[in-house]
Records
---
Amino acid sequence: MDEHLAQLSHQVAAAADAWLTDPRDSSVYVRLVRAIEAYRHHRQPQLPTEESVVDLSGPAVGRLDEDEVLDGLADSRAPKSVGEGLADDPVWPSVV
């Protein structure tokens, strides 16, 4: 956890504690909401703006064809049942 996130977490906890002590105090509630909003803003990535969105409507240059990828996987790893997959896993030998 980075220092800023730790500080924001502490602010949320302190504001929550103050609000639980006096839930009718509107200024304490506002402080709690602002602390939570700051925490969320730091933790959640911002969505790209319309200018930064990549246009995917054109031809697929440099992108892999989904069918080719699936065919390649099928050649190297044939599908098997869940029981077979678990039997091959050394962590789950007693389940099967």
Note: DSSP finds four helices and no strands in the chain.
---
Amino acid sequence: MNGTEKKEERRTFGEWFGDLWYRYKWLMIICVFIAAFLVISLVQLFTAKNADIKILYVGPEYLNEKARERLFSSIAGLAPDYDGDGEVNTDLLDIMIRRYYDESNPENYIRYDKDRESDKRFQTEIRAGDAVIYILDSVYYKKCVDEGILAKLSEVLPPEAMPAEVYGEYGVELGSINARLLPGFDVLPGDLVLCIRRSPDKDNIKYGRAADYWESNRKAFENIIKYRA
């Protein structure tokens, strides 16, 4: 027995680890992946920046990373720093839609009934999301009007900020305001509608934003509309 104990004592670290690896290889691999996932999650949690501005975009134009950065930079120059950290951070949820043309219709109307996945995401966002400013295709704008979740421009803008052309009381087409020329905004179709949700205390669908957060986004919304080059 003493000889066996001495033999065990003389095992190198490599031999010991090799034996451990042989016995518990898959368990060790799983533990490494779990540890890596936890580390990455914690880093993202502690380095994530709170969004001062929350935007929902529903349109046919894909916004790549460069376009998003340019858009966020333009918004930063127009929006309040809600959390007072010295930066204006924007969070944008983009839902890309496809416009299908009905070839059987002599007037070639655009149809959206095939885009069911996008509509599911949209319905989830307006019920459970926290975006305040909306940039919408006209069909999705009308859906928001029907849901009663948009604020009338006359109720959220001072008279001097009211645009000359209003889109159905609740919005304004991007192509009709000067902010359309700003970096990031300039890649968006001009027929998209810029609008804003009702304040949390007046919204038909309750969503998780405080009144002061909504007011900060309303101010950004106002500044976008009344922007002059």
Note: The chain has two domains: 2-47, 53-225.
---
Amino acid sequence: MPGELTREALGLVVIIKVRCKKCDAETRLSLVDLNYDGLFRCWKCKQPHIFVIENDKIKYFQPLSDEKYGKQLELDL
């Protein structure tokens, strides 16, 4: 399922598998914290996404337009 997140616990690091909603490419991200709120850009098609993980559960994962991605980057700075 595109956008589905799964995890494997490896010591203190959590590996999150993210599937791009546009091209279905899988990316693995390592997180030290089980909570994350931020941006993600697919390595293959470059589609920007925003996602929120709380207590090791996905709360939100959606693609963004390039314009919204740029605005979100400005807000994060």
Note: The first strand starts at residue 6 and ends at 10.
